[in-house]
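Wait, can you check?
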Amino acid sequence: MTDKPFELPNPDPRPEGEVDELKRIWATPKGFGLFTAVNNTVIGTLYIGAAFLFFVLAGILALLMRTQLAVGDNSFLSQDLYNQIFTTHGTTMMFLFAVPAVEALGVMLLPQMLAARDLPFPRLSAFAIWAYIIGGLVFFSTVLYDLAPKGGWFMYPPLTLTEYQPGNNADFWLLGIGFIEISAIAGAIEIIVGALRTRPPGMTLARMPIFAWAMLIFAAMIVFAFPAVILATMLLEIERAFGWPFFTAALGGDALLWQHLFWFFGHPEVYIIFLPAAGLVSMMIPTMAQTPLVGYRLIVVALIATGFFSFGLWVHHMFTTGIPGLSLAFFSAASMAVAIPSGIQVFSWIATMAAGRQRFRITVPSLFILGFLFIFVLGGLTGVMVAVVPFDFQAHDSYFIVAHFHYVLVGGMVFPLFATFYYWAPMVSSRMLSERLGKWAFWLMFIGFNTAFFPMHITGLVGMPRRVWTYPSNLGWDILNSISTAGAFIMAAGVGVFIIDLIRNFRFGEGGPENPWGAGTLEFLPNDVYSTRSIPHVTSLEPLWDRPSLSREVAEGHHYLPNAPTGRRETLVTSAVEAKPQYVLQMPGPSWTHLVAAAGTAGFFLLLTIKQVPLAIASGVLAIGACLVWTWELDRPSQGEVEVAKGLRLPTYITGPLSHSWWAMVVLMLVGASLYVSYFFSYLYLWTVSPEVWAPAGAPAPPSLVYPGLSAVMLILGAGCMLWCGRILPEDDRRHWGGMALLIIAAALMVGAVILETWGHWHTGLRPTDSSYGAMVYMASVLEGQIAFVVTIMCLFAVARLVTRQLTAQRRVTFDNAALLYYYAVGQGLFGLLLIHGFPRQLG
């Protein structure tokens, strides 16, 4: 089956002045106004720059650690300071560099690869970025004034409980990292909706760039993996602050619960980092070889399979904790199976290079890619080794593991990232980076990395344990550690050369060489602050190769949306599978609201850390207020249908399942469901570990079923109110008192159901500090209370829209989103009531 002959959507010459109008509408603010910018190229560059800054800062900490370990019996760093540096280094690399860096590349590159004017929620991206920058800088600075955490980047209890780590050090990690993960989830929602709904017409899922596939899977993995670590940090912080015993064995808790939750996030995170890097490699290799990617569909399947398998590997990190033998066998097999999809990608890359070997160019990006292949394959081989349970028993707590995960993470992510810097710099810089300096940077980094980390395999096999701050000098480890330290400084020199290259040659702005590598994908179309002059119709995987005239056609405005028909920032929204145009999305421009919201959110979490509760609440109110102002501006009235191409008119306002905001709310509900599934697992896990705590002799009797029964009735009535309200929204812009009353009643019923359920347990004498059972029972109310709080704000926001005559049966997106979340909250609440009151305590 072949496509019909392509016809230009706008074959006639475009009117003069359209380009000037686009430049005016999409102009980047100057001076301090730059902080208000939401353009993906501006905030994407800022995001990448911040992530690279954290990479450099964490690298400096690594050099301090390597200096301490260069020889035995060294006193360069004290034990306490070393533990703080060790924790901050790992936390920064994993939470403040690796995930944000690849998310930043998604914000920067996805709109260009999809020829969209921007991602669908630019202020959400800007909020996530500023929240990450503010929170990350405050967290990293704790190492400068003796407030950094000391429990390792994994923060295992019971060593991180208050008895063993008093003070605020661990709290900075728990609240700071939980907050940063929320920022990452906001970015993931943006990426999922952007990849599915803002593709250019004709770009079906089968024509989507590999990097877009990788980012889509990356974001989906964040949605399902990150809530587990958010719950873990909530549980540990609540135990530290209020004494609820989730991890205290004497009261029915279990420290291994933390490891299950943490590594359910932690092992997928390795692939969350790797998959986007692999997607970038799959984009660069065909260009360097000037030949289409071999096995495109196989690679897509491999990406999906890698994401799927990664969720079955978390016990890979817990082989030595006393897990039953049958579980060890299952997780060992799964750990080996994940090598298959990774191998498919490696062989595809090699086949593509072989197919274009006569045209393959040795440039700085291709050198970093070749270095990545060498290092990552070695890391994968040692990964298969540690998947073998008997070997892992011997090597698990040794420096062999340190070598392994650095080969996987640095090889699998850092080298592709530097290739990306050199390959895509011309997209945002008016000058290309230097080939000469780039080659110096590569060889210093490649030689330095292998010199630093390959000896660690041997160091570990001869007995050196990891997570130590010093060692006796008579054990024979000095030479190997000295070599590793020298290699670390050589690698740092390579990074330093790259920084010099950036300072000399990177100049943000337009005017650089157009498509200097001869790529076939859309990010190298002629672009300006408004992205592409028009949004192209795509008919193949490599449109610039298959249609050489496409760049000229796009620049002359012969494709979709060549102007600004609504007078605002806009992009096309297309169907999720076939990419058929559906409507014109009106997008927000520069604003201070996202910056104020980010600062307020960061202030809320950080002030809670130092127990400044009134100021924290004030910051939270400020953040909520800023979010409400920004949301109020977004729900603009429809401007009817506008012409986006000759003979094609599209609406400018859509509600229901076609709306991009509806899709975002569904993704947010999946985040909430993932968080609650993690709680469900934790509840049942603690029951299996300490069943005697669930029905101890002399414990308070369960509350009367009247309380949960009334709570359930209130939730169901609230859902009925929302359903009724949705059916009677006014057809015109008049005030509707019945709708306002129903929304207020629905919010009150939701809050009342949570309070009634909590009071039912309190009335029996059960306290959350009594046992892990009590703590988990009240934690259900905490989780339902959080969502009830958000639902209440959204319902009151909808009431305000009704009062101001801006919510009608046609203009109802704000209500639809509130209703969706309300129905989800009702479902979660009913399930929680069934869990707490029906199982497993009633069995006792």
About this structure: The mean pLDDT is 92. The radius of gyration is 28 Å. DSSP finds 25 helices and six strands in the chain. The longest strand covers residues 581-587.
